Inverse folding.
């Protein structure tokens, strides 16, 4: 019963997370994961990045992004374990790992992004 | 003399075999012949013991679904020439118990189908001589889903159904949507409990193979994802709105 | 083909093939599906990576420089290169294969074709990426 009532909500979080992840991550990961470290583009100065990240709107935006992306991972990874590795009998442990992980990650993200610097 | 092609057919004779075996048959490769014509040739001229299902030969009855070269196909719509040079592997549909040779047991689907109430449900029946009118735009809403011929190719293609036989499955959900989206129907609330159970839409992980396999363009995968959205909105509404207003 | 035949009430014995554990290795489309689902792991990794960046910037210029040096280590670059390829799989499948099928958008009573939704998603992707570039590079 509880599963039936939470499943739609988890699916909405998964879908919203899928959209923001698809739109945002490629550009960001390309810049910070490859372009800056490999010297293709010079990384932004500290003052500029601090100003962008210091703005409350961008912090709130990043927090929403992190929470949605983490729940996207949780939901998808849960079903990947269920079906891909045929572990549905470990349902309880998998749910704890996935959604517990997403909740913990969201808490860390909230702590980092909402506390004043 | 016409060219020949080999059909490598899966045989399972429950009175003798514990496991399926394969048997090769050489048949004429004719331009106008589908795999089903080849099987009929075997049955009529080479080996009368081969068992398989078929009826209309024109993609309507949905009984000749088999696995051809590893893909779920209607054998009446899969031409020998497109599979040349062969040998063409003809196996029973996947994900179903095999009764004999190419005949599978689809009772599981037959038991699931009525659970989604695939018929027009009215709160009150109109009088016998009135009609329920529908505009072309309203027909267009569900027409695609009404094309389903219950051929079971989507169940055969679905890995979720392969792993979890409790899953309601692509065709049953698409057929529920066919009635949910029908302007004459008032039964979507009755169907919701079965559809939005864990074994209903939420088991689906949108592999999309059901839609690829469907010979009638039904797009069951799309139907399931759209219903997920509907169900999610319904439960949000139920969560946010106080009782009584919904 | 290691399944067991079973006796049933109306038929002598049914043959039930068993699904192997690594069933998704048997078909290209199933393999693509599993890779698509695995992209979520790299989405989660990116969140961790992003939070490390945010933390470094919050600590000050030295920590930011240390983050940049750390992210230039060969192991991290390799990890991020793999992550980027998986995330691109996610973006392409999500924006152009999944959501166009999952959404039924109606315009003037007609359902928009999947290609139109995909085109809209492409525009959104380019736009969002441009905004990201503008915000990061200034």
């Amino acid at each position: 019963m509880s599963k039936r009532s939470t499943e739609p909500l988890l699916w909405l979080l998964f879908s919203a997370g899928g959209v923001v992840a698809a739109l945002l991550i490629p550009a960001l990961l390309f810049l910070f994961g490859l372009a800056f470290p490999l010297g293709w583009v010079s990384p932004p100065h500290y003052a500029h990045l601090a100003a962008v990240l210091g703005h409350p709107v961008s912090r709130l935006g990043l927090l929403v992004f992190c929470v949605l992306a983490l729940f996207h991972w949780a939901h998808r990874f849960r079903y990947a374990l269920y079906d891909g590795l045929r572990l549905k009998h470990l349902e309880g442990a998998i749910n704890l790992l996935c959604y517990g992980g997403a909740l913990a990650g969201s808490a860390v993200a909230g702590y980092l992004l909402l506390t004043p610097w | 003399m016409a060219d020949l092609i080999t059909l490598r057919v899966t045989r399972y004779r429950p009175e003798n075999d514990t496991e399926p075996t394969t048997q090769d048959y050489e048949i004429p490769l004719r331009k106008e012949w589908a795999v089903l014509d080849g099987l009929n040739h075997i049955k009529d001229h080479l080996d009368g013991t081969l068992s398989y299902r078929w009826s209309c030969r024109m993609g309507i009855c949905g009984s000749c679904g088999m696995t051809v070269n590893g893909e779920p196909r209607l054998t009446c719509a899969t031409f020998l020439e497109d599979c040349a040079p062969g040998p063409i592997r003809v196996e029973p549909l996947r994900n179903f118990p095999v009764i004999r040779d190419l005949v599978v047991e689809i009772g599981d689907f037959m038991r699931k189908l009525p659970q989604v109430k695939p018929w027009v449900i009215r709160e009150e029946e109109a009088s016998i001589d009135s009609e329920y009118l529908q505009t072309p735009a309203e027909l267009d809403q569900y027409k695609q889903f009404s094309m389903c011929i219950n051929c079971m190719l989507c169940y055969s293609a679905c890995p979720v159904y392969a792993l979890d036989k409790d899953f309601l499955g692509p065709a049953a959900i698409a057929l529920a949507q066919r009635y949910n989206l029908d302007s004459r129907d008032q039964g979507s609330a009755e169907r919701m409990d079965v559809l939005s159970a864990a074994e209903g839409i939420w088991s689906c992980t949108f592999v999309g193979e059901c839609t690829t396999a469907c010979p009638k363009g039904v797009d069951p995968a799309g139907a399931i994802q759209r219903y997920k959205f509907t169900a999610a909105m319904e439960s949000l509404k139920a969560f946010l709105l106080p009782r009584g207003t919904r | 083909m290691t399944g067991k035949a079973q006796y049933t009430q109306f038929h002598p014995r049914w043959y039930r093939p068993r699904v192997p554990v690594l069933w998704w290795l048997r078909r290209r489309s199933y393999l693509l599906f599993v890779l698509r689902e695995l992209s979520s792991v790299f989405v989660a990794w990116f969140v961790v990576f992003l939070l490390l960046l945010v933390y470094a910037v919050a600590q000050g210029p030295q920590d930011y420089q240390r983050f940049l040096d750390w992210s230039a280590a060969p192991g991290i670059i390799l990890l991020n290169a793999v992550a980027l390829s998986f995330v691109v799989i996610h973006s392409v499948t999500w924006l152009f294969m999944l959501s166009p099928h999952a959404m039924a958008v109606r315009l003037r009573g007609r359902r928009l074709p999947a290609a139109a939704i995909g085109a809209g998603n492409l525009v959104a992707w380019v736009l969002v990426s441009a905004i990201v570039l503008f915000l990061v590079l200034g």
